[in-house]
Amino acid sequence: MLIGCTKNLLEFLKESPAEREEAIDPLYSWTANLIILNRRKTLVAVNDATKCCFVLHGLTTKMIPKLHELLKNGIRAVLESEYVAPNIIEKYLDECGQELVFTKTLRSEVAYCNKACERVKRFSEILIPGDLLQKPFLPWFNDDLIPKYNYHRISEILLSVFSERYGSPVQSAQMVELEVELELCTPCKRTLLVPTNLNFYQLHRILQNAFGWEDRHLHQFILKKDRLGRPTKIIQPIDDEAEVFLDMSIKNIESTEITVKEVFALHDKIEYEYDFGDDWMHTVKLKKWIEDCENPYPKCIDAVGEAPLEDCGGRYGFEEKLEILADPKHPDYQELMDWTGGKCTKPLDMQRIKCRIAGAYRHYIPVIYS
User: Fold this and answer.
1) Which of 88, 200, 220, 239 has a CA 20 to 30 Å removed from the CA of 67?
2) Cβ contact 298:198 at 8 Å
């Protein structure tokens, strides 16, 4: 494995740079820098071919003897974050070589490494203390557009290069198909494919985009009740607003702490409640498990019915507003017309739903600190 190191990193490692072979394949070489984030030494490494990056946040001198293994773990983590198949990941790591070679950086790669350091710094305030690899943030670190590559995203470049080298498909992951029905007087369903490694905060964001909600209110997932009739609830990360609504007599699990796989391995149906004032209730049913999916990103594959506007009073308030809009003589008709434009629902636009989910996926907040 070849690592092109900046002067700062070479000094920290107490290494003298070896001569760099001109014929080295850029897919198997990385450029790395050492920066300080939150008073912790942080190694930022960028692949010379794909421009994807990973970090070792909180690197210490005691870790240097294990650096080769730590670097391999970092590479494995970034490839896993893009659902590269495990067999291809291990093949790539084998081809990187068992020897760790430090060289000086190539001038042509320094700019990409500096950009990666800038990206990582953007998230310095929410990096997880004590987490060396910062896995939840890798999709964010690798979301920039690269002008030299026709403004493709780093993640797209990575998959393209790996497909060319190893053949398609290069991705593989387990997913679940979920049918989600909003309790309403008219049919309103969404069928979703979701990677099983996502946490429930991420599932919440997928549901928000699927139904066109605006995530302005609190939410929770309700699981099966125990023998005493007490449900387990998956709640959003606790802040001052959410804490007011906590029922401490039941089991509460924060949504960032549990995955889709863990829940649907035990439950074939759960409930999702959004907006504790309007009480929008959704039934989430497990339809099937999908192994080795080749395009394992969250997506909506079917949609039935228009969803209500935000803040229109819940199921019964929505029904009342439909009745008012159907009666021009109603005293509240004109006021409601002015607010809704004559319709209490958002138009069902499948393409928009798909774009919202695909576009927002890489920006779901995996960790929130109050």
Assistant:
1) 88
2) yes
